[in-house]
Amino acid sequence: VGKTTTSCSLAIQLAKVRRSVLLISTDPAHNLSDAFSQKFGKEARLVHGFDNLSAMEIDPNGSMQDLLAGQAEHDDVNAMGGGMGGMMQDLAFAIPGIDEAMSFAEVLKQVKSLSYETIVFDTAPTGHTLRFLQFPSVLEKALAKVSQLSSQYGPLLNGFLGAGGQLPNGQNLNDMMEKLESLRETIAEVNTQFKDADLTTFVCVCIAEFLSLYETERMIQELTGYGIDTHTIVVNQLLFPRAGSGCDQCNARRKMQTKYLDQYEELYAEDFNVVKMPLLVDEVRGKDKLEKFSEMLVHPYVPPQ
């Protein structure tokens, strides 16, 4: 529907009026690289042609074991130690969402240390978008699980692995507890910022079709439930056939879009800024086309008569 295009365009406009802007994609599809025709990774990198706009793409499904172990590699683990490590991993992964929560928390810690003035999140499709708001409770469950392990298996681990009680990856249960607690605090702090209307707002991007209208309504209700400010909806890919156009397909599609556009207006016009974006002939890729598209976000598109 144009989420990434809109995110990139919004970041471009913000870069004109902010000291530094970071654009983060949490979508596993990693479309930022395609949009800017430039390769991005998990480290923030300046976008070509800008000196205050950076971008990064993160994998929301990073490995929890990697996060806990850092980059340490212990290939010579004995069989008993390996069994203990496997047990820890199995128990940790028994908590739904822990992998994603920890990966996200690590990214947030990194972003905090970079101190950008404005951050734009290009989120994955609706189902994934609000998952990170549940991460603090996920990490609290993980903490409880590890705490339980510590009391149950701590003496056993010490017996098997020596006084240090170390796991194969060089961690011990106390290290895990501290790591999880630190990540939980980071996410809890960010969630507080997300719920502050002076600091954060959510922009919904949709198209004028039934399913998109339904998804947008559901998402706005969820956002409101979480206490997150949202007052802008971008309706993308609208057709504006010229008066008297002989294109039957264009006219039929415009008629359908008008029906759903009227519903958007009826539902949201009073409390929301509804931005109408046209369906363009060319694909919006590369800095120049994104800049052109971004202008229509701030200066309303006027269709030809």
What is this structure, in a nutshell?
It holds the Pfam family ArsA_ATPase. The chain is of the alpha/beta class and 305 residues long.
Query: How many extended strands?
Result: 7
CATH T-level topology of the largest domain: Rossmann fold
SSE order, one letter for each helix or strand: HEHEEHHHEHHHEHEHEH
| CATH homologous superfamily placement of the largest domain | P-loop containing nucleotide triphosphate hydrolases
Supply the CATH architecture of the largest domain.
3-Layer(aba) Sandwich
Distance between the termini: 25 Å
Q: Strand order across the biggest sheet?
A: 2-3-1-4
What do these coordinates show?
The protein is an alpha/beta fold. The chain folds into 2 domains: 1-196, 3-Layer(aba) Sandwich (Rossmann fold); 201-286 and 296-304, P-loop containing nucleotide triphosphate hydrolases (Rossmann fold, 3-Layer(aba) Sandwich). Helix content is 53%, strand content 11%. It is built from 11 helices and 7 strands. The protein has helices at 3-17, 32-36, 64-69, 79-93, 98-114, 126-129, 135-161, 173-194, 210-226, 248-268, 287-298; strands spanning 21-25, 45-46, 53-57, 118-122, 203-207, 232-238, 273-278. The strands form 2 sheets. Strands 2-3-1-4 form a 4-stranded mixed beta sheet, with helices on one face. Strands 5-6-7 form a 3-stranded parallel beta sheet, with helices on one face. Helix 9 (210-226) links the parallel strand 5 (203-207) and strand 6. Helix 1 crosses helix 11 (287-298), helix 4 (79-93) packs antiparallel against helix 7 and helix 5 (98-114) packs across helix 8. The radius of gyration is 24 Å and the shape is elongated. Mean pLDDT is 81; it is low at 70-84. Residues 1-298 form the ArsA/GET3 Anion-transporting ATPase-like domain. Its main location: cytoplasm. One of its GO terms (cellular component) is GET complex. It is found in: Cytoplasm.
